[in-house]
């Protein structure tokens, strides 16, 4: 089990951190750095949040008192084509320009790995300007099957009195090559409604409601691998924090061998992206004629703190194969980033 979790979390951390090593260069854009970072990384953040709200159930039927299940699953949210690029609108930026005339840049989830040159020109002193150039990183979508953002889960469900299940999902904090840490925790409640409909609870039909909350944290160390560039990094780190919740109405037809299930509800997701550490930036000083006349160094700390949200309605259809206490299930969810879920469960009523 630990090996499965490790492999899935490697995929997750790769997406969330993406090319975070290159994010340090964006700081040369000064006040424009936050906007560029948000446009570049937000599809990965949204994909993670949509994945985190998946996989809470494979039936609307709750456990008997003290029954339990252990579920291992993976969710994958597909990034729409429109979110593989973002439009560079010059009026949105104060200092950054694209010297080669591009109007669309790849996001982290693009299959286009092309880097894009960005020029920076900031008014300085006595009609001079601080100038610099850096490359916006390309995407990593081409390296990921289906260009889908993965979200691994390990979940335990436990039957309480009053036909209610409590659910705990957990992926322990794991480090990858001393550069990436990632972990996840979540809680959910599922309550059976058929108990209120008298003899109808003898039918294979089950109806319930579910509410779930999931929290994920990913941190990536930004190293200073190039001593000759315009940035010196001390204690650099990219920190991604995501909180999601979902409320859904569930229905299922539970037969001996197969279960057909569906759900409808609402997702809410909020995330923060923080670039932490101390950064020494070097700019050339340019006069009005475009001549480089000197250089200047500036120091900044914890320069970026931005937020990305992902909200909306969701509809899920799925099926589960019941082989005694062993279950195999899969479903598909229509939402902002459509999501596929697949997994296995060991369930004891």
Summary keywords:
349 residues; 10-stranded antiparallel barrel; two-stranded antiparallel sheet; 11% helix; disordered N terminus
3D structure, described in words:
By secondary structure, the protein is mainly β. The protein contains three helices and 17 strands. The strands form two sheets. Strands 1-7-8-9-10-11-12-15-16-17 form a ten-stranded antiparallel β-barrel. A two-stranded antiparallel sheet has the order 2-4. The longest helix has 20 residues, at 33-52. The radius of gyration is 24 Å and the shape is elongated. The two termini are 22 Å apart.
Offer a quick outline of the entry:
With 349 residues, the chain is mainly beta.
What is the topological layout?
Elements: H1 2-17, H2 23-26, H3 33-52, E1 68-78, E2 85-87, E3 96-97, E4 104-106, E5 116-123, E6 129-136, E7 148-160, E8 164-176, E9 180-192, E10 205-222, E11 231-254, E12 258-286, E13 292-301, E14 304-309, E15 312-323, E16 326-334, E17 339-348
Antiparallel strand pairs: 1-7, 1-17, 2-4, 3-5, 5-6, 6-12, 7-8, 8-9, 9-10, 10-11, 11-12, 12-13, 12-14, 12-15, 15-16, 16-17
Return residue spans where pLDDT drops below 50 for at least 5 consecutive residues: 1-10
End-to-end Cα distance, whole Å, is 22 Å
What quaternary form is this? single chain
Total strand segments: 17
Biggest sheet architecture: 10 strands, antiparallel, barrel
Average pLDDT taken over every residue: 88
Strand content: over 45%
Helix content: 10-25%
Helix and strand element order: HHHEEEEEEEEEEEEEEEEE
How many helical elements? 3
**Taking Cα atoms only, what radius of gyration do you get, to the nearest Å?**
24 Å
Category by helix and strand content: mainly beta
**Strand adjacency order, main sheet:** 1-7-8-9-10-11-12-15-16-17
Overall outline: elongated
């Amino acid at each position: 089990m630990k090996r499965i979790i490790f492999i899935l979390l490697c995929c997750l951390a790769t997406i969330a951190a993406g090319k975070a090593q290159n994010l340090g260069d964006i700081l040369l854009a000064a006040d424009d750095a936050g906007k560029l970072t948000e446009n570049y990384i937000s599809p990965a953040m949204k994909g993670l949040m949509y994945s985190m709200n998946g996989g809470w159930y494979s039936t609307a039927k709750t456990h008997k008192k003290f029954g339990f299940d252990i579920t291992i699953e993976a969710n994958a949210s597909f990034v729409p084509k429109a979110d593989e690029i973002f439009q560079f609108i010059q009026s949105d930026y104060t200092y950054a320009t694209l010297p080669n005339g591009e109007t669309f840049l790849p996001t982290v989830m693009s299959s286009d790995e092309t880097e894009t040159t960005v020029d920076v020109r900031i008014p300085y002193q006595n009609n001079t300007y601080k100038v610099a150039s850096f490359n916006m990183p390309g995407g990593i979508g081409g390296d990921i099957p289906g260009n889908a953002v993965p979200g691994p889960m390990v979940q335990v469900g436990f039957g309480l009195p009053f036909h209610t299940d409590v659910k705990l999902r957990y992926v322990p904090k794991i480090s990858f090559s001393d550069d990436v840490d990632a972990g996840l925790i979540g809680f959910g409640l599922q309550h059976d409604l058929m108990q209120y409909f008298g003899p109808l609870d003898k039918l294979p039909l089950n109806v319930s409601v579910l509410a779930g909350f999931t929290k994920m944290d990913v941190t990536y160390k930004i190293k200073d691998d190039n001593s000759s560039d315009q940035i010196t990094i001390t204690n650099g780190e990219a920190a991604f924090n995501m909180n999601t919740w979902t409320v859904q109405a569930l229905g299922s037809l539970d037969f001996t061998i197969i279960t057909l299930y569906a759900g409808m509800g609402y997702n809410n997701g909020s995330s923060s992206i923080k670039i932490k550490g101390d950064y020494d930036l070097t700019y050339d000083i340019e006069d009005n004629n475009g001549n480089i006349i000197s250089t200047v160094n500036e120091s900044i700390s914890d320069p970026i703190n931005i937020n990305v949200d992902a909200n909306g309605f969701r509809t899920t259809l799925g099926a589960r194969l019941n082989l005694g206490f062993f279950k195999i299930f899969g479903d598909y969810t229509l939402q902002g980033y459509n999501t596929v879920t697949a997994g296995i469960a060991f369930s004891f009523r």
